[in-house]
Amino acid sequence: RGGYRVEKKLLKIALPITLGSFLISLTKVVDMSMILRRLQAIGYSTSEANEAYGSYTTLAISVFALLPTLLNSIALPLIPILSSAISGGDRVTEHKMIELSYRINALIAIPASIGITLFAHPILSLLFGSQAQAVETAAPLLSILGISVFLSCMITATNSVLHAYREVKKPIYSTLAGVLVKGVTAYFLIGIPAIGLWGAPISSFLCNAVIVVMNMHFVSRFCDDAVD
């Protein structure tokens, strides 16, 4: 029976986290179909839409996703300490670990966001020098995505803090809200000829902003409840 209870607790934690990862993967599929269709709706041929989408995902998205992945290995070791503090009722350590997690993310992610935004073209030229045309297409898009680097890192940090509180469902709610915002804004923005493919990184920024704001709200509420 003891083993069954442990397995049940693990499933309660693992299933929502898995569902959250699934939702993020699903947005990529939705992105692909939506971007291609909306680009064609404003006059892109099938080949032009595929080329633009390929430049965006292969170059801009690849560079954008690199930093949050690297930052995970730096910030996540703080989470077991936070979990221990929460379980032991150590409110001082609890608040310090949350603050430290945010601060580490900010110290690395903010300069990186600025650097990617300002130097998107040189970065892509260095990494993909043989794909000059794709670089020209992807560089302005990466500049917009660069603003979202900080938000993407904060999503990882706030999700981890919520998991430490065993509130594994809250990131799903914020992710669903962000995905909804992303889908609606991408559909309308990409369909505007003057904006076009730029609507994709803009919608990603809005999606990430919604998720971070909601996660921060959840975290602050749990911290206030812990103090009370």
Describe this structure in words.
- With 228 residues, the protein is mostly helical.
- Helix content is 88%, strand content 0%.
- The chain is built from 8 helices and no strands.
- Helix 1 runs antiparallel to helix 2 (46-75), helix 3 (78-88) runs antiparallel to helix 4 (91-118) and helix 4 (91-118) packs antiparallel against helix 6 (132-164).
- The protein is globular and about 60 Å long.
- The mean pLDDT is 82.
Helix/strand layout:
Layout: H1 2-41, H2 46-75, H3 78-88, H4 91-118, H5 120-127, H6 132-164, H7 170-190, H8 199-227
Helix pairs in contact: 1-2, 1-7, 2-4, 2-6, 3-4, 4-6, 5-6, 6-8, 7-8
Please summarize what this structure is.
The chain has 228 residues and is mostly helical.
Which terms would index this structure?
single chain; 228 residues; mainly alpha; 8 helices; 0% strand; globular
Q: Taking all residues together, what is the mean pLDDT?
A: 82
Radius of gyration, in angstroms, nearest whole number: 20 Å
The outline comes out as globular
Largest sheet: none
Q: Find the count of extended strands (DSSP E, 2+ residues).
A: 0
Binned strand content: under 5%
Classify the helix fraction into a percent range: over 70%
Task: Give the helix tally.
Answer: 8
Terminus-to-terminus distance: 35 Å
- Low-pLDDT stretches are none
What order do the SSEs take from the amino end to the carboxyl end, as H and E?
HHHHHHHH
